[in-house]
Recover the amino acids of this structure.
């Protein structure tokens, strides 16, 4: 039974609290937040939990094995580092840190301390993304041609970060899990419509080897909510619509066939193929529930998490590069050699 | 009664033929195509029309007042130029020409000859785009923040041009008509998934003054057909879905309100506003029918068309610049000073 | 501050508990259920609440002003009657009782004791139904022509009642609130696909005066979930889709115009009118929250609830008659004179 | 090569004309209509076709092998009878005749003359309905539980018949083709909202053996167009949405499992099963094209058509009975022993 301390009970923290509290392998020993009302609500809901406004109480508590951090991004690195230094395993909210330098520091500290460092890339643990990953790695789509995601709605304008840090992180963490290779370079564009604010609309193109291209459209100022991803492959193509109550994933047996040795440029090179569509039944388990169980299992068995520090770092690297490109109106930014081989 | 000659009876030409033939102000005198079967079909359908395989017969025919050209892009400029030189008015299929140099040549010739030069930007004549133009120019949306279009499907791979020349031209011609200003620069990305082929997927970002941004996603290799445009303004926002049988345009009384003089950066700057949605009844007239009537009227009255050579040139300029940017993986290409003030 | 006792913590009871607990005008003093685990969960969530497995403890508790009943239908009448006899106000789950005779007994007891008797017709308190009621009563639709509802999904087969008692009750309670008159007769059809089971699919037609017709399709065995109501009027028509995340109500300015004095039967009698569509912004308040506040207000002010015993009785009368008609494969059953004038 | 005469060039006749004209096995020799403009249009489109305003010219023409009739319903029987008496094969628009007595007369005449008598139940020849028929007859759905169709829109009010004769005929012809048995009885309800008009909204329930139930909702006065059919079976269920551009048919591997020997009525009798959804690729051939080819083949080979006179009669029988039931507000009308065994 892993004993967990949770830091931050704002928007996401209560979900972590609930899932750890209901987990078979863990219990929540202490929670930390700056606001009394949140601590009181947690204590009322889960009698017996220690509450504190000072994270040091969590780090110093020898009964705490692991710390889950759901605070503003700017505080992730400092809190996670101190937790690791105190010998705790760490689950940190996405994005992992506010800079890749910070992310690297956490990875090093976790390695040195031999502690589990996991990033809360929740979507990776959904039935939909698990199914996509399995289809891609099983070769069902053939060669992957493109990954295109639209994630827009009338959303909360963040004060401290642009929309890439807020929304594109979801897509980048999914791509990090399902795509067969790592992006080599990024070109991004975007603008702010609020004087003095960060970009609220952004477009990212990611270049991979082998003509794989990815694109992400994120927008806090859209009249409708869209969460749709198209994944094109040489054999099949996927439409993943996260707003569908069921049938989130549709697999189309469609595509083109290319005549590789045409006699003439004027001859028809491309054939079209249309077949059935198929929407597989997906696991209904709450993603965070599966993720919490995975975190506990990694701690107990000493195994590496699906969404460890390395994936957290890769996501932060792309976000940093994309923000730099966006400031230069689409200038191509090469990405460093990938941090970690494909799992 | 304007007498029209039509050159090219492939995919689009028969629609021009039908609409000119049914027009109150025009009649079709002659048609030209390289294939006998197409000429025979036209003659059977419209007895009395002269048919020829040589465009010179059309140009030399003194009974022909105007020529409509629906041939491959590479032939537009030459055919249109010769028609103008023969003193004919010209309606040319989109894109107007294969290069902006060619487009400029046509504009000059039309001006010199005092002939109507119109580009078949059909979407501009739809009830939906007419309504959007009227909402934007009437100030209903407030300041325009962004224009975002997705135009994808499993489409015919073109041999001679990339997907921007084929599909993005539609969006660029709509934007040219409805947006309050001209793009200043473009950044585009895209790849080809067919060896030796032109790019079949592309993403264009267009930068305007005043933080207006536009983005176009075109793709010949998508599993589903999507034709959706989001237009964001400071007062209202539009979703234009061209695949909706009715209710193609939905206007959302939604948005943000920005506190312009915040006391502190930590204070909430942005408020959210949600109101009704409204889908106006649109004109049901076929766009090409309205367009043909407009062409006839411009000839008869000597007035400038809504989609004249200048708009055709502006679209070609952006396509050229976007193709150049795409080849350089997103490098920003500044656009020349706009060719023509806003109508 | 009204003190409330809640009987039944199965599927719906916890929602009542939460809403009463969070209500400004009420507090929950005691809860009753037959299962220990449910009582323990309630006590943990709301420390200080008395728990019991015997409803008599609730009735005998002088600190309890009102009782909310969320138990199986067969027990509604007995529990509600005993609560009224003990001088408590009563909010009872829909359907109000298992027979109209029972429903009448409750109405009489509440009148004699001068207590509030309210039926939990939750949908009546949604923003969508409130808007429909206001449009109908404000004459926006003109004369109401029809009300057509489809309420199907792969649902829980009930053991003790047919699908009309389970699902059609929702539609009947909405119709009772929004339609301008009461049904005069009903014809229903349906079958059971489970040996020995109650009907799991049913179709009800309700006849009103003035050619108003209503129809309800309910089905526990549908592959997809549908919750869609069409309401036709002489001036406008409504589509109410409860599964839409926003835009649940769409109002169509469409219809026919009838030439009332045609010269000839062969002449066109009917004209068609198509106009804009409009989706009004709806109140986002949780329906049960509004309902609980309304119950408290009725107790405090001694006013009649929107969904009092009379509306509960009318719904039960139709369900009884429809079940009788269904057993006779559509035989028309006349309904008694309406119990209560339109509010 | 079958020589065809076509009578009636109103709404549907031109489609018959085009498909027969383009058919490999047939040619159109003559057309008949009362209006000069329609005849002129046909002659212009298909030079060489004989035109007449008198159907007798068609019947008397020895060069005509077969007659296609697309006139108002009230004239079907007379024209078809005279065509058969003249020795012609007949394809008659749906509904086959204005009464079952008339329909029987045609069947007898065709049998006596050994001529093909086929009814234009076009939907039967669509890829969607062909696929449904194949799934049902192949046992993919298990036992069929229900068939539920909604066919509503703002449609043309007919002067001479109610909405059942106009719209429900489509569903009845599809059911006649795909369902494993024949209806035994019908209960229908409906009203007219136009003084002196026929019913413009109607609901039909059809009872079959083995608890199979069917229901059809037709409405000329709906704000939106809906064409959706649910078919429930013990193994799988189908949603057939004819307005979907692709994926018209979705097959759900969902349902219930019933415990046949429960120990107790209080025990859970019913289990729920959810699996994948599958949308098969459908034939894209125009239905009328396939139907015309089938008619020609039946004539050439002397075989019985899929939608022969017997199916036309069965549909008319149900429409008659449903209209009678509707007039009596849902009174159950037993249907005669089925006219013809299942094909």
């Amino acid at each position: 039974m892993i004993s967990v301390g949770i830091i931050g009970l704002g928007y996401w923290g209560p979900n972590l609290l609930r899932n750890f509290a209901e987990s078979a392998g863990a219990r929540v020993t202490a929670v930390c937040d700056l606001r009394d009302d949140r601590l009181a609500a947690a204590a009322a809901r889960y009698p017996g939990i220690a509450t504190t406004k000072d994270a040091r109480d969590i780090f110093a508590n020898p009964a705490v094995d692991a710390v889950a951090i759901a605070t503003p991004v700017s505080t992730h690195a400092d809190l996670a580092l101190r937790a690791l230094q105190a010998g705790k395993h760490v689950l940190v909210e996405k994005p992992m840190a506010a800079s890749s330098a910070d992310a690297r520091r956490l990875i090093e500290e976790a390695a040195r301390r031999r502690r589990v460092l996991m990033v809360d890339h929740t979507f990776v643990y959904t039935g939909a993304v698990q199914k996509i990953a399995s289809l891609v790695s099983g070769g069902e789509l053939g060669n992957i041609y493109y990954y295109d995601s639209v994630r827009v709605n009338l959303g909360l304008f963040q004060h401290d970060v642009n929309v890439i840090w807020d929304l594109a992180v979801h897509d980048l963490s999914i791509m990090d899990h399902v795509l067969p290779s790592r992006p080599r370079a990024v070109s991004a564009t975007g603008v702010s419509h609020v004087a003095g604010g960060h970009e609220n609309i952004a477009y990212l193109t990611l270049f991979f080897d082998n003509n794989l291209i990815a694109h992400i459209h994120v927008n806090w100022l859209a009249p409708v909510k869209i969460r749709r991803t198209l994944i094109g492959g040489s054999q099949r193509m996927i439409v993943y619509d996260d707003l569908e109550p069921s049938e989130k994933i549709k697999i189309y047996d469609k595509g083109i066939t290319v005549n590789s040795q045409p006699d003439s440029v004027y001859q028809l090179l491309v054939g079209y193929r249309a077949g059935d569509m198929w929407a597989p039944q997906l696991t209904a388990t709450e993603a965070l529930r599966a993720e919490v169980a995975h975190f506990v299992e990694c701690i107990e068995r000493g195994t590496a998490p699906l969404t460890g520090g390395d994936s957290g770092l890769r996501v932060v690297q792309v976000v940093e590069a994309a923000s730099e490109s966006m400031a230069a109106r689409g200038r191509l930014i090469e990405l460093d050699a990938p941090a970690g081989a494909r799992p």
In short: Chain A has nine helices and 15 strands. The first strand of chain A starts at residue 2 and ends at 7. Chain A touches chain D through eleven residues (CB under 8 Å). Chain A has two domains: 2-122+287-308, 124-284+317-334.
